[in-house]
Amino acid sequence: MSGAVRPDAVVKLAGTAVYGMDLDVPGMLWAALVPAPIAHGRIVSVDLRAARALPGVTVIGADDLARLLGPGERDAERPLFPHEEIVYRNQPIAAVAAPSEAEARAAVALVRVEVDPLPIVADLETRFPEWPGSEADAAPEIAAHVRARHGDVEAEFRGADRVVRETYRTASVHQVALEPHACVAEIRGDVWYVRTSTQSPFGVREDTASLLGIPETSIVVDGTWVGGGFGGKGSSFLEPYALLLARATGRPVRLALGYRDEFRLGRTTLPAVIRMETAVKDGRIRARRVRLLLDVGTSLPGRDFATGYSIGFLLGPYRTEAFEVEGYAVRTHKPPFGPHRAPFAPQCAFAVESHLDHVARELNLDPEEFRASHLWREGDTTPLGQPVGPFGIFAAFERARATARAWRAESPPGHGVGVACGFWSTSTGAGGEVRLRLSGDRLVVHEGSREIGSGSVLGGLTAVACRVTGLPRERVAIEYSDTSKAPFDSGVFGSRTLGALGHAVEEAAVALRRTLAERLGARGQADLSVDRGEIFAEAGGHRASVGSLVTAEERTAGGILAEGRHFASPRAIDESRVLQGSFYAYTDFTGGAHVAEVSVDPATGAVRVERYAAFHDAGVVVDPGAAQAQVEGGVAMGLGAALTEEAIWSEDGRLENAGLLDYRIPTLGEIPPMTVEFLEGFAGAGPFGAKGLGEPPIVPVPATVAIAVREACGAHATELPLSAERVARALKLL
Amino acid sequence: MNSFELVVPETAEEAVAALQALAPGEAAPIAGGTDLLIDVDEGRVAPRRVISLRRLPWKTLDWNAGALTVGSTLPLRSLEEDPQVRVSYPGLYQAVRAVGSVALRHRATLGGNLVRSAPASDLVPVLLSLDAEVDLVGPSGDRRVPVDRFVQASRRTDLRPGELVRSVYLPEARPSAFLWQRVRPSNDISQVAVAVAFSPAQRRWKVAVGGVTPRPTLLPEASDVLGSGRPTSSEVRRASEIAASRAAFVTDRRASEEYRRHLVATLLERAVGSAVNGGRFPA
């Protein structure tokens, strides 16, 4: 897309793209959620009478669900409103709909909630000052416990020349999508219909059905333009409440969050404590012990995933003969944990890279050479016994090292250059399908997810269709529709769109070319071309306009149809290494290595990133402009997590810095000059060998900055973000 | 956002009258609106009437033998772009540059910054170090109040009902400097801000800090230690120690008290160096 206009640029710049926040339906009511006043307590009473007495106001609470929803079985672990116990501050305890936003707010203020406070679990280390032992499995706060090991870890630790032990701490980070969650719901006859800003219309449908206890087939979800997702819009959130209010009022209902509530209620990544122990002998890593305490808030679904998926990243992309990993998901009185671009991988990479850098320094070894000599190569298997496959992490690391050497040669005193790497898995482990319709002048790609701003749908899928058919971009259109008409797709998450849906597009486009060849009386696949506005097909020496090859019946249904599906291919880990809980196999390995040059103020600890370079294995790059933009955006977001972003929770479970004044994402002033380079030759499972690129670029960033800071001033900061105050403490200035 | 009536008076008298016609809190003057409208949006204030000062002839910059009068509704960006401000009042220039973003400075004003009296204001410490005075117009006539008396506490000033800030008076060009530190360098609130200025007429230093105490404050003890000219390095160190040992430092989510003390000492040393070496320091 270099030099070309992004396909979504014009509608977005002109302001004609309708986002969830923009939805405005005639007769629409404005909804608001009534927030729980404390983080943990037993409900004595919820008095809705005063709010209900307001003219035009409808209020629903826990007692209204049976009446509105019928006898269906609702997800008991995730009640829409708590019956007895409040488990996080601002948990919705009732919902109101009113003729205006101000009236909705006024109604919320009139709801009287009486609660007997209960003690809260606010913080991991307050609850577990010592590491949890085996007795912890019975503790109500332990939501999941996973363990795996391989090799004779004890013997390796006993026989080591040196054992290095460290503890790392990482902060809670928010997705900060520009557009908060927003939807408009209405009941259309038997259909529960909701338009929403989401990464996954089908995911919202499934999740909403489970929360409301009604069949999926009764629910229709239509996506809007999405002002950023970054993981925060992957499942249902506001939709069930808006639908309930629509049901209760018989009117369309808009429910959207203000930005402060987006922080208070949103699904953030929560803090973690990571312990690392490494046994080294003769300059080689002999064994590692890695332990994770992950705050998952009130999360219930995905609690195994949170630990079992994250924990693989804690071993890093390194050869590890003997290891032991253990992770606890700890339930606290915070809102539900949620995915944030490459969930938890940047935090894990920060700990792994900083730790192995530190180990090498402790042993007077070259930290980069030490890591490089242990990096995965093609043919290796992961610690959990999964083949790594074609993966350019070592090549990327070597490019990054070369760049670092060049930068070091010219960087002034007070500057430091750091190198770190990180990996991710392209989640082609979620399926989806597409439909292609070819008419005389146009190819339509019909799919079930929306462009969320990453370019993976409008840029990526279009590029795949163009590449397979040979048609120019202006002849290919992406068509969306609601879940009642669209082909199924799992959603735009996990860096999967290009790999999974792109694969489906490729399959469908090949099928289309075969059909055309058949109709031309030839074998193989027809070639397509455009001549004076008409699409022509050619095969076996025969050529005809597509218009003439479309049957009369097909003409009534939009043209020649071809379908493609992507099925998740099951991957395996070596289960004999798993002792407890669920571990997850990764799919296509992807990732890269980064270089940062930073300056550190030696008297204040303030860090400034001066320049940055990113080297990525993205398989085969399908859309170079979009690929570069993904890396730049991922790095920018990672710099926030590295230096300034931190949701701060008080001891009573209150988010102290809800909103963009005190939760600081980088501005353009904090984004350094950046170069991006792709290493090709490591084909992935996506179309033409593509790999996903939405998430990998954020993974190495905090680690890269942390190591650069250490290079600059010697400060070994073990807690994210690397605020000036933390660096000052690491420098013993305080 | 709640709705309000917008009034756009042509003269100071009309503006004062429009303000006076309603009870305090019911009417709010607006210049750049960069702070007021956030409060309105978040429901902290709900004025029935908003009085725009945009037609008043107050977007001025008047020089008089080194003294400078800054009209209260002059956008900060104009102050920043004036080459003489940069030379005569380097501390003011540096502080203005520290406020928000360029886009914000095209709207925000010195008068607004003063009347809003935010505890973390970057401009108030500099105005304190420059002995700035506030010119007010009001129902009972004009008066002039030193900034140190005008700014009383967070969100509280000496402004009386019906009064408006017309201009800010800076009595003399001073070698000066303003340094800050923030969680995020761009577009953020300062954890610590330090302003220093040397008065050639009085031959004494003025040191003020912001972001540290509930209200930006002059530190006379630290100022006195700096002496009556170029301070020695031990005097600078002593002044830093005194500044850092002040009692009323706050701890909040932007920084701990301990780190703020450390920053005050560090930035004060640097600021004095910058003021002394920034040119035009009297012999």
Task: Describe the model.
Chain A folds into three domains: 19-119 and 181-256, Alpha-Beta Complex (Aldehyde Oxidoreductase, domain 3); 342-349 and 364-427 and 574-730, Aldehyde Oxidoreductase, domain 4; 432-566, Aldehyde oxidase/xanthine dehydrogenase, molybdopterin binding domain (Aldehyde Oxidoreductase, domain 4). Chain A has a seven-stranded mixed beta sheet with strand order 3-5-1-12-9-10-11, with helices on both faces. A six-stranded mixed beta sheet of chain A has the order 8-13-14-15-7-24. Chain A has 734 residues and is an alpha+beta fold. In chain A, α10 (303-315) runs parallel beside α11 and α14 (456-469) runs parallel beside α15. Chain A starts with 8 loop residues before the first helix and ends with a helix. In chain A, a hairpin with a 2-residue loop joins β9 and β10. Chain B has 283 residues and is of the alpha+beta class. In chain B, strands 4-5-10-6-7 form a five-stranded antiparallel beta sheet. Chain B has a four-stranded antiparallel beta sheet with strand order 11-12-13-14, sandwiched between helices. Chain B is globular, with a radius of gyration of 19 Å. The mean pLDDT of chain B is 94. Classes of the chains: A alpha+beta (734), B alpha+beta (283). Chains A and B meet through α20 of A and α12 of B.
Radius of gyration of chain A: 27 Å
Task: Let me know the largest β-sheet of chain B.
Answer: 5 strands, antiparallel
Count of DSSP-assigned helices of chain B: 12
H and E string of chain B = EHEHEEEHHHHHHEEHEEEEEEEHHH
**Tally of distinct domains of chain B:** 3
